[in-house]
Amino acid sequence: MISKRLELGLFVRFILLLGMMYVTVQYLTQYTWLQVTSGILIMLAQLWEIARYVTRSNNELAKFLEAVKQRDFSQRFNENTNSSLQQLHRAFNLINNTFKQLQIEREAQFQYMQTILQLVDTGIMAVDTETGEVEWVNDAFKKMLGLPHLKSIDNLDRRYPSLHNSLQSIKSGDSTLVKLKLPSGQSQVLVSATAFTMQHRDLLLVVIKNVSATVDATETEAWQKLLRVMTHEIMNSVAPIASLADTLGKHLHMERERYTSEPDVPVDVEVLEDTEEGIGIIKKRSEGLLRFTQFYRNLNKSQQLNLTTIYVEELFKSIDTLMRPRLKADGIEYICKVSPPDLTITGDVNLLEQVLINLITNAQRAVLERPSPQIILVAGQQDGKVTIEVHDNGTGIPDEILENIFIPFFTSHKEGSGIGLSLSKHIMLLHKGTIQVESEEGVGSTFKLVF
């Protein structure tokens, strides 16, 4: 249709040009030079109009392609013209509308994906592998690390050198576990990476996730399995010893009675008393070891919680009644704070009391030799979670043993059993919570329960 109209227009213009040439030739033989000059000018004008007529579609096409190159799809072409460009303009407008719709859909998809990535609690970041510049990072990444903004991974070097080193060396498809001191406490972070190319640039998609709770649960499960085996073997070995000590003790007691009733029977009384005393010690320690292993066996079996709604202020009052006299006797200042006063948690009140007693008892031991000893028990809300913290201004925990304090039977005190903190951690895991610690030698320690 367009080509036919174009051919018709050219044909009409060609006929008019031939007619004008004929008239000009006639003027050349019969009329003046002014008329001949006028005819030549008219023919030149006709030739220019024919050239413009032929090339205007090309001009319109060039104009359209330039708009496409500039991604300007707001331009409209006149479809009401009666010229041969009407259908061409209609086609241009149709393509413009299609591109505009695709652009809107693409922008909507981008906004949709950004919204999803911003809502997930996993940190995600895209990094230019050549320059180290951060192309995009979601809020979870910045919130986890406590950073308001992040332009380059080099900015992590001062605050998180271990994470920076991991990002510098990690390869596509690799995953590595990094220990970091985050604003929420000491944590273990899983770092994974995937490489991709976009617009001729090599990018690295980095994903970080706080897996402390998962690692803690796995470690606790492993320790529980080991303890089940240990308690089983210990009880099987110690029970006969305790029984045998009891039997020997009875025999010795009978021998002493017989000696009392028959003084003529030769016997070394001193050896008899020493032996009886030694057997008594063996029996006592064996029974103590049996009670100790029985406690851990029962702990591993007690997975059912008696869950109730607990007012934290009431919980603190109960702890205060129990612990304040002991702390006051040692000259330790004891402070309790709850904000807001109606703060509640869901849990087993007896087990949580045991956790707080363990932590306050450890704090009491830590501040005994300190000037102006102080223990603060405080509860509140952080990031929508209830937290209970036990602060002390004690001696602190050395860095070399800080990671081991939750291991069963591990203790740095001669009078400690090494079960208090491991028990507290186990109870918090049963409550789907965590226990975190921050400590500095010579300054003090803070244990935080997060529900």
Distance between the termini: 76 Å
Q: Rg to the nearest angstrom?
A: 44 Å
**CATH H-level name of the largest domain... which superfamily?**
Histidine kinase-like ATPase, C-terminal domain
How many distinct helices?
11
CATH topology of the largest domain: Heat Shock Protein 90
Please explain how this structure is put together.
With 451 residues, the protein is an alpha+beta fold. Helices cover 56% and strands 19% of the residues. The protein contains eleven helices and twelve strands. The strands form three sheets. The chain has a five-stranded antiparallel β-sheet with strand order 2-1-5-4-3, with helices on both faces. Helix 1 (2-30) runs antiparallel to helix 2, helix 8 packs parallel to helix 9 (349-367) and helix 9 runs antiparallel to helix 11 (420-430).
